[in-house]
Amino acid sequence: METLPRVTIWNEFRHEKKNEQVARIYPEGLHVMIGKALGAKGLDVQLAALDEPDNGLPIEKLVGTDVLVWWGHMAHGEVKDEVVERVYERVLAGMGLIVLHSAHFSKIFRKLMGTTCNLKWRAIGEKERLWVVNPAHPIAVGLGEYFELEHEEMYGEHFDIPAPDELVFISWFAGGDVFRSGCCYHRGMGKVFYFQPGHETLPTYHDPNVLRVIYNAVLWAAPSGGPQVTFGHRPEPLEPVK
Amino acid sequence: METLPRVTIWNEFRHEKKNEQVARIYPEGLHVMIGKALGAKGLDVQLAALDEPDNGLPIEKLVGTDVLVWWGHMAHGEVKDEVVERVYERVLAGMGLIVLHSAHFSKIFRKLMGTTCNLKWRAIGEKERLWVVNPAHPIAVGLGEYFELEHEEMYGEHFDIPAPDELVFISWFAGGDVFRSGCCYHRGMGKVFYFQPGHETLPTYHDPNVLRVIYNAVLWAAPSGGPQVTFGHRPEPLEPVK
Amino acid sequence: METLPRVTIWNEFRHEKKNEQVARIYPEGLHVMIGKALGAKGLDVQLAALDEPDNGLPIEKLVGTDVLVWWGHMAHGEVKDEVVERVYERVLAGMGLIVLHSAHFSKIFRKLMGTTCNLKWRAIGEKERLWVVNPAHPIAVGLGEYFELEHEEMYGEHFDIPAPDELVFISWFAGGDVFRSGCCYHRGMGKVFYFQPGHETLPTYHDPNVLRVIYNAVLWAAPSGGPQVTFGHRPEPLEPVK
Amino acid sequence: METLPRVTIWNEFRHEKKNEQVARIYPEGLHVMIGKALGAKGLDVQLAALDEPDNGLPIEKLVGTDVLVWWGHMAHGEVKDEVVERVYERVLAGMGLIVLHSAHFSKIFRKLMGTTCNLKWRAIGEKERLWVVNPAHPIAVGLGEYFELEHEEMYGEHFDIPAPDELVFISWFAGGDVFRSGCCYHRGMGKVFYFQPGHETLPTYHDPNVLRVIYNAVLWAAPSGGPQVTFGHRPEPLEPVK
């Protein structure tokens, strides 16, 4: 893409309204926090939330979206199947998708992966260190060899996903666990990036490294403008067949 | 596995009953043809068909199945969702799955892939040559560098699948098309192999190379007996966390 | 990279001087042809040839190169080992490398692959059709689903390379062969792309699709500016160890 | 393979003769320790050491070897280039290769990888936990979800290797590092497995899980008997070309 991608940030936006601790960290919602950071880097940002009509994702909004960022946790089941289907079709048609933290269990991610996307977890706010294992990857631009989150929810292996097409981060957790925390996939014409940090009761989306990764991922996942593929019956061979 | 895998061959088994041409080639059904070939190599073979109770796949039968071979075409939509779910869970739990030809569009394959699995096709019976591009792969054992099918339905790129974990065959078609015709995937504890040949009006499953590939794939896809993984909350860190 | 990459095009540049047919197609050398095309798209282009001092690649020139394009055929053995070592180190440090056609047998490509890079070939100028099998890949931008070369040297499987990190093209040849003709690799901080077309006696580098692929590949292979990695002894643990 | 593979275990075998601590742990050499464990499981085992004629690997011995296990550390440079070349050719022809611990820097592994194979290290004997991230892989058979080594040398990212074809283990180190500690590659007809544990001053090769992994890896890496591939000129097309 020669122009900067148009990003829509979808947030379940329930914790912030129900839990004081979360509200203090993200008074306007974590999508607003991420949106401001991406906007400050020049991206064209829209917001969307579960409790809006059409779960915040009417078709016109999706059509105007190059990359969709998705955070959900307690209400995956409330996302309408027709909205999931709509997002799915847009991803296959080329829209990028950035899946954050507890959205590993979102309907859309599970549908795109074909697995349970289950994992281990422990929410005591232990230290996480994210190691870059693919330093040449565009999602690692501007980072150091690793970066740390003083307190994060542990997500641990085994993570039931297909082997990533490209593995960018492996996380070390103080409690003895590791996790494939930055995973790239291609599905149809679309690119998908799963990124592990982001527990709602911790200020993870205030962290400049985390925000840098999301920004990099948006650039990476933007549609690249490849060939229009066709499917179905092709009555004539391209060559006369002997 | 130290013992030979127990195979169940699932066939839609409709074309054979409705179409004389198909019936001449596979009078008892193509699953019987494949089953006899695998049985002759010492495998323990069961059969299953769409129109049997539970679509031929009650849970007890699946539990006794190490590898499921699947052929379907005209009636993908008639496979009950609960049966698809049951097969899906067995695959994630370790059962191998061999997906043949037009079963690229089966519910189970699409669910495991997370993509449309769409492709191009042309049914004029042109020549196909299957080239081995991963000669060290166990699915290529006992083959030559390539083998030919004098007449096969063309399946052509673009094939809308995730990039295979291992690509074993690329097919050349006389009419000018190519196809990734032997694709390996891992999903959960299970292994999945898609193999392109097998149009119902052609004697593809009489071909010794095709049967050899299916046999090899069954051995490759059999459960390997790895660790039992666990998911969910792990209340205590393995290490005391500072 | 926010600025366009600086490209150096290295050509063995012997055939053009010895063979009239080649000289007619590429009177100034095929590197000049490719260089003009890339320059016309705004890239900063330098040229280099085997018979120049230091085989055309003194260290200063390499240091000023973001992406190196390499064509060689009859004189792979005359490239000095120290020059190969120098290019190798630059690739691992992040310089992109585009390896064209018969350079599959170049010292630098074999060293980076760790395999023989051997293949089958037939130089009767048969038709080649290059199918895009990864339409979302940036190297496929601006192409159709496939493109054709009326006459090209056949390169056929088995191609003795590591499985590509990303496979972009599969070629169909009229004579019955297929070939993984567009292959992406990561080595150290560097990206490597092998692209099959380009027999010296044919006007392949006059073809706009071929030139578009090379241009796309240069953009893809340019250094992305990831973290500086470090190696060796790290005397202190980052955490006190119990 | 229907019969059990013939294994040769190559050891540099210098530390054991010069360092009392090492000699106490491996009085006969660590290759003997590993060899006894593999022999007890029924494998046909031969031993080889650097200071033997031909570095312990005359061609006849290699020809009778299905899988070669390699441990080296202080004397990589003393392995003769002609022996490295011989092993390399055998791997490409189908011999399996298991590369242990400090042999990440061996000539043969670097030649097969095409990268520096450099890494970080710290030898304070901290705790390592090896997590299985591919539980369906045959190399993980018979293990738990993870296993621990109370004391091991830390090897940390970034590990300068090509992205593994299959990643089986990720290690957690108490000091804050992670490592891709079990990595599968295919090179030519051969399979290569790198396995990180095995510092000479620690009793790592007494550990039953470590020995189980080596055993599993030998079975996985054994030649599978695929097609004989051919290279070079193929004068006639398989099909008449229009």
Describe this structure in words.
- The structure is a homotetramer of 242-residue chains.
- Chain A is an alpha/beta fold.
- Chain A has a domain at 6-116 and 182-221: Rossmann fold.
- Chain A has helices at residues 15-18, 20-25, 30-40, 59-63, 81-92, 107-113, 208-221; strands at residues 6-11, 44-49, 67-71, 96-100, 120-132, 146-156, 166-173, 178-187, 190-195, 232-233.
- A nine-stranded mixed sheet of chain A has the order 2-1-3-4-9-8-7-5-6.
- In chain A, β7 (166-173) and β8 form a beta hairpin.
- The radius of gyration of chain A is 18 Å and the shape is globular.
- The relative contact order of chain A is 0.17.
- The mean pLDDT of chain A is 95.
- Chains in contact: A-B, A-C, A-D, B-C, B-D, C-D.
- The interface between A and B is large, with 44 and 43 residues.
- β10 (232-233) of chain C pairs parallel with β5 of chain D.
Helical segment count of chain A: 7
DSSP E strands of chain A, number? 10
Largest protein interface, residues of each chain: A-B, 44 and 43 residues
- CATH topology of the domain at 6-116 and 182-221 in chain A, anyone? Rossmann fold
Question: So, CATH architecture of the domain at 6-116 and 182-221 in chain A?
Answer: 3-Layer(aba) Sandwich
* Poorly predicted runs of 5 or more residues of chain A: none
Oligomer: homotetramer
Estimate the global geometry of chain A from the Cα principal axes: globular
Span from first to last CA of chain A? 43 Å
Secondary-structure-derived class of chain A: alpha/beta
Q: How is the biggest beta sheet of chain A arranged?
A: 9 strands, mixed
Give me the strand/helix succession of chain A.
EHHHEHEHEHEEEEEHE
Share in helix of chain A: 10-25%
How much strand of chain A? Answer: 25-35%
Kindly provide the name of the CATH class of the domain at 6-116 and 182-221 in chain A.
Alpha Beta
Any idea what the radius of gyration of chain A is? 18 Å
